[in-house]
Design a protein that fits this description.
Helix content: 25-40%
Number of helices: 15
Number of strands: 26
Strand content: 25-35%
Strand order of the largest sheet: 7-8-10-11-13-12
Radius of gyration: 25 Å
């Protein structure tokens, strides 16, 4: 007896790393609707994480509820979480907003520290049915273990966790799909090392694979970022019992002239609600604080002070590019702080040798550093900007030779010692070698979650004398 002749086709539509680009979501929904109609009842719609991003007013104001509403209205069948969902929104809030989600959240490498089990709203795998085809889904997110631990979660090895779930799914379904918010390098490892995966849908590294990368029998995919593309993958088999193979894979550019009216209305409503919620006044100040990116400025000094106060260190170092504009005189609202400091970046403490502090501060005086455009690891600014400090006094010659502009750095009135280790309050992104890489040479790093640096600014604005202190120069030319 041969195979039963019964040709089957499954269309997989997917997005990843939308990062709360709400201006694209209605267009994405319209394209997905069109493709689902064309595919009939054998299509599935998936998102691979980082749909949320608190740099967006809608996400910040609704704590992710705006994203959940759009996911529901677009008709996703399953999603996984990215680091933006897992690390920037608290467990309690995620539990609340995902309670209204109409599709499963699939992720197998996150567990609660206390119970040892996944959160109540998270599935390690699911099996969905489409037109007589059983589809096994599992997923995993980037394992920033140290960060997750501070939030009460354990992030396990994603390759091991996925391998375990794939073994559990084998024999139960016709096709196995992995939702991988892990990055392209690990996606390739999964395809090479884990037998039985038919499709890896990838995210996190924002890679664009216009056609699937075939590794053995596994199709590895990625649809870029920010809702610019919807990925479409067509899997087919000629007979029941055979393995599905990829017969077509492409990225569909999102047409901005297409629009899904219901999604558009929901986004506009959430935008209005978020703006209203973010009008809460946090301070009233009697002066404006300018911001400059190539020289010292009061607003950047205020941020350095805020980090110093929060971390309890004696030195703080931050980059001025975290701040997108000056702080105006008058009433300051939560929405204003969010708009001026949108990055979901946390403070941290490192031990840093004097010579490395000196090196970073010298780099800060060079336009190739202060004017550098950077992206990723939470940074939502435009330029890196120069370094602002608290706890130090720096004497320098702005016309001096590069890397020899600083003549002396003082800590508590004494010259900074090159070989001495200092406790420094700074920003988590530097520890990932982003921007000023010398700052990544610090040791004994202590990350401080869940507060973002804009939360620290809010506290600093209420501290007596903070505005006056921000006006006091730390860089003396």
């Amino acid at each position: 007896m041969g195979f039963e002749s019964n040709k089957q086709k499954l269309t997989i539509l997917y997005t990843n790393d939308i990062h709360s680009h709400f201006e694209m979501m209605s267009n994405v929904a319209a394209l997905i609707s069109r493709e689902k109609t064309a595919a009939g009842d054998t299509s599935i719609v998936l998102d691979i994480g980082d749909h949320m991003d608190r740099a967006s007013v809608e996400t910040e104001g609704s704590m992710g509820q705006a994203n959940v509403d759009v996911i529901n209205l677009t008709g996703y069948d399953a999603i996984t979480i990215g680091n933006n969902e897992g690390l920037t929104i608290s467990y309690d809030v995620l539990e609340h907003v995902y309670a209204g989600l109409q599709c499963p959240v699939v992720c197998c490498n996150i567990r609660e520290t206390e119970s040892g089990r996944p959160p109540s709203w998270m599935k390690q795998h699911v099996i969905l049915e489409r037109g007589g085809i059983s589809i096994g889904l599992t997923g995993a997110t980037a394992a920033f273990a140290g960060f997750y631990q501070l939030l009460g979660w354990e992030a396990g090895d994603p390759v091991e966790a996925i391998a375990e779930q794939v073994r559990a799914l084998q024999g139960q379904c016709d096709i196995v799909i992995v939702l991988s918010h892990l990055g392209l390098t690990i996606d390739k490892r999964l395809a090479e090392q884990v037998e039985g995966i038919d499709v890896v849908l990838g995210g996190h590294t924002h890679h664009i694979l216009e056609e699937p990368l075939m590794i053995g029998k596994t199709a590895v995919c990625g649809a870029g970022k920010f809702g610019q593309y919807v990925g479409r993958l067509v899997m087919e088999r000629n007979h029941v019992g055979e393995r599905f193979t990829c017969v077509e894979g492409t990225l569909l550019p999102v047409d901005k002239s297409l629009m899904e009216p219901i999604v558009e209305q929901a986004i506009l409503r959430h935008h209005e609600l978020a703006k209203e919620k973010l009008t809460e006044a946090v301070a009233v100040i009697d002066r404006s604080l300018p911001i400059h990116y190539e020289e010292e400025s009061p607003f950047a000094n205020l941020l350095a002070q805020a980090v110093l106060q929060h971390t309890g260190t004696e030195i703080a170092i931050v980059n001025s590019g975290q701040l997108l504009g000056p702080l105006p005189e008058g009433e300051i609202s939560t929405g204003m702080l969010h708009g001026l400091c949108p990055s979901p970046i946390n403070p941290c403490i490192v031990k840093l040798r004097g010579e490395h502090i000196y090196q970073a501060l010298e780099e800060s005086l060079l336009p190739e550093f202060s004017g550098k455009k950077i992206m990723g690891f939470g940074f939502r600014g435009y330029l890196l900007g120069g370094l602002a400090v608290d706890g130090l006094k720096i004497q320098y010659d702005k016309d001096g030779e590069p890397y020899r502009k600083i003549t002396q750095i003082y800590f508590k009135g004494q010259p900074l010692e090159w070989q001495r280790e200092y406790h420094v309050g700074t920003l988590d992104m530097f520890t990932f070698k982003i921007g000023y890489e010398t700052l990544a040479l610090g040791t004994d790093t202590v990350y401080m979650l869940p507060e973002f640096i804009r939360d620290l600014l809010r506290s600093e604005l209420s501290r007596t004398g903070s505005l006056e202190a921000s006006m006091v120069p730390r860089w003396i030319s």
